[in-house]
Specification:
Blueprint: H1 6-33, H2 38-41, H3 55-67, H4 89-116, H5 125-144, H6 153-160, H7 163-174, H8 177-207
Helix pairs in contact: 1-3, 1-4, 1-5, 4-5, 4-6, 5-8
């Protein structure tokens, strides 16, 4: 096993703090904009990263993945909101759900434009930071858009799924941390290969560089 690149891990950690703070804040802002003040009452309508990060899924998990050379992905503390109080019903809840991952996609696109237009030297440290930032945000976007409760993509599926499917999803979501453990086992068994392929494709599409 090669030595761990501490500089790379520091860059990954910084990218995670920025990306996941904005990700979770956009969930909160979206729900507030749609009429639900739950996130505000819980202190989540903020850009303070300490209000959003989870020690395992936001910090430890992505850093462990980065240390072994895998795309760093993860999640943060779910932003509380009441789907019954947002405008447009299930579609409003879907907007709240996808607001976070779409924020990651926008961040990746912004960094990708800087890289594509040659604003920075492709051999310098700023270039490497931007590429890492793109990988982190694309990874968070793809992972969180998977429609498995309690991931964000499940909110979009709730909006269009028939009642029997919703019932199953609600049972899974009610399992809490057990559901997350089950999903991680399922993910690494069946989905890690396609996940890496999708991330590699999107990173190359956004940045113009094949880095994975």
């Amino acid at each position: 096993m090669g030595s761990i690149n501490l500089t790379y891990l520091v860059v990954v950690f910084g990218s995670i703090l920025v990306s996941m703070t904005l990700h979770e804040a956009m969930h909160a802002f979206a729900s507030h904009w749609l009429g639900d003040d739950t996130a505000k009452m819980e202190g989540r309508l903020t850009l303070n990263p300490l209000s959003h990060i989870d020690p395992f899924t936001t910090v430890l998990l992505p850093l462990m993945l980065a240390a072994i050379g895998a795309p760093p992905f993860g999640a943060a503390k779910p932003v509380p909101f009441d789907p019954r109080r947002v405008k447009f019903g299930e579609f409003g809840a879907a907007i709240v759900g996808v607001a976070g991952p779409l924020t990651n996609l926008v961040l990746a696109l912004i960094a990708g434009l800087i890289v594509r237009f040659g604003v920075v030297d492709d051999t310098g440290i700023v270039f490497n930071i931007l590429i890492t930032f793109i990988v982190v945000n694309v990874s968070f976007f793809v992972f969180n858009m998977i429609p498995f409760p309690p991931l964000d993509g499940s909110r979009a599926l709730y909006a269009i799924a028939p009642d029997p499917v919703r019932d199953v999803m609600e049972r899974i979501e009610g399992m809490g941390f057990v559901a997350i453990i089950f999903f991680m086992m399922l993910f690494y068994t069946f989905l890690s290969g396609p996940f890496l392929q999708v991330i590699s494709y999107l990173v190359a599409l956004v940045s113009g560089y094949s880095v994975l």
